[in-house]
Amino acid sequence: MTANQFSATILIAADKPEHLHLLSGLLTQQGYQVRASKSGAEALDFIKGNAIDLLLIDALLPGMDAYEVCSILKADTVTQNLPILFLYGADETADKIRCFASGGSDFITEPFQGKEVLARVQTHIEINRSRKIIGQQAAALELANKQLLIEIAEQKIYKSGLQESKEKFSIAFQTSPFAITITNAEDGHFIEINDAFYALTGYTREDTENNSSVTLGLWLSTEDRNQVVRKLQSGEKVIGQEKKFRKKNGETLIGLFYAHIMETKNSTYILSIIDDITERKAAEEAIRESENTFASMFQNSPVTITLGMN
């Protein structure tokens, strides 16, 4: 996704005209909506009344500095996930690690390089939007799952054989964008699988026919599956747990896992749903590695660095 594929609003809090001019021009050219403030207090007032997607802020603003602004925003549930990028001058020796300690997402140091600025801005906006989408999808999925299970229970699909209820379940099952399977609780043999599962994992119907999640090697850890089964059989719920799976090509899939147990006269089944978050986890890991690399370089630098505030 490129920056001009979506509309995003960025607030720049800086008292240096050269910062405002350079960054505003660079970001505006990429299709971003740019707003500006000259102090930390002014930035907070703007954010309270307006929705923004990212904050660029001079680390050493006079008065209320970026660290205080960041701490206030992170303490508010409404703005706690707002990406905040600190701006440091070339001659500033301020504690950049303090950026992360106060809740900052990343930092940029002068001289500002256009490609670097745009890459960092776009990465953090996309991660934050992915986080929001995942949260919305998880909430919607949980609600849909509950509604589906309630309908299954009320209509007693497996016990009464009501054709209308079976058809409703079949439509919801097959058209869901999430990977859904029904397996035998005891041995993991597949009973029903929707198309989204095959698209996500790369397996085919021939692969899963007369096979199980265990023998197929779907679970990266069979103990993970055993724990899920034990939890369900003890009456506990499995909602949005992060689990790892193995695709047909051997790649690891990370998903939010939802499961519900269903019992019939003769057998016990598990209805499972996988919401793929592999790309989101990879993006978050890349950010963490970048932060760790900086921290290591900072701490092990042979050059004496004075930490403090102006």
Instruction: Report low-confidence residues grouped into runs of 5 or more.
Output: 1-5
**What is the architecture of the largest domain at the second tier of CATH?**
2-Layer Sandwich
Task: Categorize the overall geometry.
Answer: elongated
Percent in helix: 40-55%
CATH topology of the largest domain: Beta-Lactamase
- Under CATH at level 1, the class of the largest domain stands as Alpha Beta
The SS-based structural class is alpha/beta
- The residue-averaged pLDDT reads 82
Total number of strands: 10
CATH superfamily of the largest domain: PAS domain
- Backbone CA Rg: 25 Å
> Beta-strand level of the residues, as a percent range?
15-25%
The ordered H/E elements are EHEHEHEHEHHHEEHHHEEEH
Q: Any idea how many domains?
A: 2
Note the total helix count.
11
Between the first and last Cα atoms, what is the distance in angstroms? 39 Å
The main β sheet shows up as: 5 strands, parallel
Biggest sheet strand order reads: 2-1-3-4-5
Walk me through this protein's architecture.
- This protein is an alpha/beta fold and about 300 residues long.
- It folds into 2 domains: about 110 residues, Rossmann fold (3-Layer(aba) Sandwich), CATH 3.40.50; about 140 residues, PAS domain (Beta-Lactamase), CATH 3.30.450.20.
- It is about 45% helix and about 20% strand.
- It is built from 11 helices and 10 strands.
- A hairpin with a 5-residue loop joins strand 8 and strand 9.
- It is elongated, with a radius of gyration of 25 Å.
- It starts with 8 loop residues before the first strand and ends in an 11-residue tail after the last helix.
